[in-house]
């Protein structure tokens, strides 16, 4: 007699094999996406830094905290400062967002470190400030761990994890 289909046992075996494969592969794919998002965030911070350098070259200063990253897209309201503004300095319609949908945070004058450059950071995957997965262009006060040393090699060499925890 010829069969025209699969038995329930055969279907259950196929489903269990697929479940095992998914259980093995899914975490690897999700981990790769998280790493890609972190690298993309570091690249975005680097691009914002370059736009800020162009802004500072024209205006002889960086935008203050209140003006923020928006100053790269919109001319200042002050007529004297607007005369030197030669933007927009950054492509896009508005302030860039990180891969998790959050706007980048901006602070100038800097309160992190001794360099005269704005602080730029993302809250990272968890969306909360001052956690170990924050991604920033400044180093944390504590010593860097091995995972953060890797993050210091961002495209501009300035992006690093905000704190001493891992950014992965």
Characterize the structure shown.
By secondary structure, the chain is α+β, with helices and mostly antiparallel strands. The protein has a single domain (about 40-160), classed as Glycoprotein, Type 4 Pilin, CATH 3.30.700. The chain contains three helices and four strands. Strands 1-2-3-4 form a four-stranded antiparallel beta sheet. The model is unreliable at about 140-168 (pLDDT under 50).
Task: List strands and helices in order, with pairings.
Layout: H1 8-59, H2 79-82, E1 105-107, E2 119-122, E3 135-136, H3 146-151, E4 160-161
Using the coordinates shown, work out and report the CATH topology. Glycoprotein, Type 4 Pilin
Order of helices and strands: HHEEEHE
Question: Any idea what the shape is?
Answer: elongated
* Fraction of helical residues: 25-40%
> How many domains comprise the coordinates?
1
Mean pLDDT: 79
In CATH, the homologous superfamily goes by the name Glycoprotein, Type 4 Pilin
Give the N-terminus to C-terminus distance in angstroms. 58 Å
Beta-strand percentage?
5-15%
Query: Rg to the nearest angstrom?
Result: 23 Å
What's the tally of helices?
3
Strand order of the largest sheet: 1-2-3-4
Describe the main β-sheet briefly: 4 strands, antiparallel
Which structural category do the helix and sheet elements fall into?
alpha+beta
């Amino acid at each position: 007699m010829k069969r025209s289909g699969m038995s329930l046992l055969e279907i259950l075996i196929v489903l269990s094999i697929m479940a095992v494969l998914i259980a093995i592969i899914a975490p690897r794919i999700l981990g790769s996406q998280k790493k890609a998002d972190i690298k993309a965030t570091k690249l975005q911070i680097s691009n914002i830094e370059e736009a800020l350098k162009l802004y500072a070259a024209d205006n002889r200063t960086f935008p203050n905290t209140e003006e923020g990253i928006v100053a790269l897209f919109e001319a200042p309201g002050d007529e004297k400062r607007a005369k030197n503004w030669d933007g927009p300095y950054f492509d896009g319609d508005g302030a860039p967002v990180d891969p998790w949908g959050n706007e980048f945070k901006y602070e100038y004058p800097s309160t992190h470190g001794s360099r005269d450059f704005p602080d730029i950071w993302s809250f990272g995957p968890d969306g909360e400030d001052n956690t170990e997965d924050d991604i920033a262009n400044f180093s944390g006060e504590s010593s860097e761990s091995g995972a953060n040393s890797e993050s210091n090699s961002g495209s501009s060499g300035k992006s690093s994890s905000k704190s001493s925890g891992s950014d992965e």
